Fold:
Amino acid sequence: MSAVAPPPPSPRRSLREAWVALAGLSAVFLFEMLDNSILNVALPTIGRDLGASTTALQWVTGAYAVVFGGSMLAFGALADRFGRRRLMLVGLVLLGVASAATAFVTTAEQLIAVRVVLGLAAAMTTPGTMALAFRLFADDGLRFRATNLIATVGLVGLAIGPTVGGLVLSIAPWQVLLLVNVPIAVLAVLGVRTGIAPDDPADLHRDPVDVLGAAFGTSAIVLALVAPTLFVDQGAGSWAPWTAAATAAGAAVCFVVRQRTARYPLVDLGLLGRPLVSSGLLYQAAEGLAVAGLVYLVTLQLQLDWGWPPALAAAGMLPQIVTMLAIGPFITRIVEKAGIGRAAALGATAVVAGVTAYALLNGLGYVSVAVALVLTAAGMRVVGVVASVNVLRGLPSDRTSIGAAINDTSTEVTSAIGLAVTGTVLAALFGGDITRAGWSAAQTAQFHEALTVAVLSLAAVAAALVGWAFARARSAGDDEASMSVEEALQEA
Structure:
């Protein structure tokens, strides 16, 4: 007699009922946010200790970002086939082992290898975080609150990372900063294993993996993430960044063609055309494009244009973190008042308004920076929760991990494009070495011209994406995109 599969677990009726699972999933997101922020402050110490070159130090952080962004699609597709919980647990074990290996690192190359493995572990766990949180609840209101809770924990890690890193370095070796991932991984494993039931086979699918499509997609994303660094490091006059960008575009075209012709595509492009999905991705893309350029330029302005020391420049960025933390408790209320679709549109519009204010009010000094950081942070916080939940709401239950992976990847890629545009404009309009202190009056004027051109260009493209997203949600008669949480539940 064949064994009878156990019935799927009942949806949780409150966050309290799901606290063990949410603790584990929050720990996963905490790792992602804490890892880079806590490590960046240690890069000078790492360079001295390992005798690392500037290029090697760049790859200590860059290798993680490239591998993480490049492999999310493939792992998202695997999670929908073999189990989100299962893949996340494997990734968490890999995270713990790789972090523990930091204790034995003696060269920059070994540390880069550890960062590559950590990038793989993050790609295995991150898409599943939101997918698993989404499936814990049937109530959209609880889904928003759970996603908001997980995001808040991650933002706390992002905010305290540099401070904690600096304190740790004063009393312990830099390796401790990565070894802290080990207890985080243990906490996450306990929470996920205990609080989340094994995947329901009905929520998975068994289509063969599109290996060729995965290869094209991964190549396109990796090259799209590498190209901005090449533009910034080597300038627009070098052949290398243009070659990387052209190859990325070619791989992207091959990926799309493959997905349209394959019997079992890695990504069903028809699903991406659904109004909820496409509008959510467009809102996320607008945010990533605009904010990446803004943060890069603000960092340069505070330290190189105005001559602020690093500690003061870090304090100057605090309005962004404080705003994102402060607005968290109000997101559910915003969604209930404005409606799901309108909340995403309002958040994305705030991002566009923030970067536009930075460009137009820059003559007012730090006022323009503070206004830009507050507006963009508020918009990012709303878009990050609402748009990502909308993407998952618009997908079948057996495609949520790939949906979460596409959502995260769109932000990674558009952020890289925003950085590339900014770096290219700076290279074209700024004469001399931008990292050298003591700019001349002419260089200061050139920087401000480049800032205005780059930011307004990004704002214009982001505004077009926001308009497209709003029209996309409305054009197909998708009333669900603009209805309130209560109305959505009634229709369900």
